[in-house]
Amino acid sequence: IAQVTTIPVVVHVLYSNAAENVSDAQIDSQIRALNENFRKRNADVASVPAPFAPYAADAMIEFVLANRDPGGNPTSGITRTAINGSYPYDGRDDQATITLDSLIKEAGSGMSAWPASSYLNLWVCPIQGGLLGYAQFPGGNASTDGVVINVTAFGVGGSAVSPYDLGRTAVHEVGHWLNLLHIWGDDRGGCLHSDNVADTPNQANANTGAPRYPNVSCNNGPDGDMFMNFMDYTDDAVMTMFTRDQVARMTATLLGPRASLAL
Ligand code: ARG
Ligand code: ZN
Ligand code: CA
């Protein structure tokens, strides 16, 4: 029987000015967005084109701010740390951010992770240069495990900046954290690489903005790229679904390398 898995989240807010010290309401909006999208309760899933609609799936995963800290004491599930200024983006890609990690995830310049076996660590912080966020895949170093979201792309409305103001950067990054690859397989223009997910069409490259349906590549017509998938790079208002096979991959992660997290 399918059963909902609940994941405790700690949000580490790192701020260099008052605006970056996001409100509890902004944090709640992000948790709500994660829950809506992972439970397929986002109203805009109705806009998925008919040929793709049967693949849209409820991941059966929910998120809740932690109510116990690593010492077992009551907590809001939020830490707040003042920092010196925004972090420099080191120009590496999406998941590879050695410089950023060493600043964001360490005491002194940032905030160290709570035990990755018990919490999803979510750092919110100012990052220069347009990186919306990044994630660590399962199996990595516990001290850097979790997701990082640029403050400008965190939460719904409020301090989040359009077109990344529906909380879907975190949905995308938590997808990586649960072992999902980009839907285009990180081909950079070719059609050779897969996301190792059977029910997503092969796709040449990342889509950005709001493409017109259908958007064909890699002989994937007539329906084309599934650019409305959370694991593409389209605008928040465009990405609306995970597929069944993506959900199967995330479920396998929660039964395997991340089993200790399930509440
Ligand atoms: N790591 C990706 C980036 O920084 C995240 C893309 C998220 N996309 C979105 N529409 N929120 O570009
Ligand atoms: Zn990504
Ligand atoms: Ca595929």
Automatic annotation (TrEMBL):
Residue ranges of domain Peptidase M43 pregnancy-associated plasma-A in the record: 113-254
Keyword DNA-binding included in the entry's annotation:
no
Which GO molecular function terms does the record list? Answer: metal ion binding; metallopeptidase activity
Q: Keywords in UniProt for this one?
A: Disulfide bond, Hydrolase, Metal-binding, Metalloprotease, Protease, Signal, Zinc
GO biological process terms, alphabetically, are: proteolysis
- Source domain of life is Bacteria
The entry sums up its family as follows:
Belongs to the peptidase M43B family.
Protein name as annotated: Zinc metalloprotease
